[in-house]
């Protein structure tokens, strides 16, 4: 079962890691491995959401999502999007960006280094908004309750996450300008770049959120119509039309899933820039990760087991928050990519272990309850 579901992912992992060694040695191997783990961990919640919607679709649309949809996800967002970001930031054509990355690494590195403040500000703000919207929402299940309870209360204030993000951006750009001024003002214009790029990141987050919300609303409307038609058919004594139920809403489901996947992959792609600027390593790592998202989605549809690890979503969002802070810091200071990658991996691992401990505690508590019930039955002579 596991080999059948994850077979392609294992094969792509092996090929990707071998390609990384040939491309840049064992350092490249390590970076691709970290990027893969980062993408998988940040996409756990994506797989859970995908599975929940895929269950409602018929076999044809499931196949469409898991083939064409994955091609869009892997090649569109994970391979093309990083190139587009570098091309826009460095003001070169996408083909030139790939050519430089492969054939003139020194010049490419120079271009990306110059463009890094704008990439970091854009990505930092986008990731920060994801984290803030998560942490300010009141949830039934809390991981770090000492932190999440007070923040959930604060989250009742409208637009708080936007205000906090803008304050962080303002402080970052002012700090950058002050630092540049102390060094002769050579990079004062970069402060404006940081400010504008950060605002662009905020706007992008709101557009993606708006599109997701739009498709979600359309999906709900379609499902309501299907439900009404089913009830009408049942009252008239006609058989339910399962094909109609799967078919009518399926197109909006597919579009909604693609928008969701695009928005989820933003955090992985942007987070990858905190680890490496090399688009080849980025494409390898994120491509491997995206394959596991597909496999996890299929596994969830068939088994539905990852819902048990309730803190994984929390861990992924804390990792996003950490990456956002790291990206904003790298505007001015250099941070080793291994440290950056390990922060996310540690947070995900911690949340996974917390989920396992919680499950064991719940199982032990249920066992005690069963034992006490049995004793009561024996003592009462039942």
From TrEMBL:
InterPro entries given in the database record: DUF475
Alphabetic keyword roster: Membrane, Transmembrane, Transmembrane helix
The keyword Magnesium appears for this protein: no
Chain ranges passing through the membrane: 6-35, 64-90, 118-136, 157-181, 193-215, 241-257, 269-294, 315-333, 339-356
Entry-linked Pfam families: DUF475
Highest taxon of source: Bacteria
Transmembrane helix in keyword set: yes
Record-given protein name: DUF475 domain-containing protein
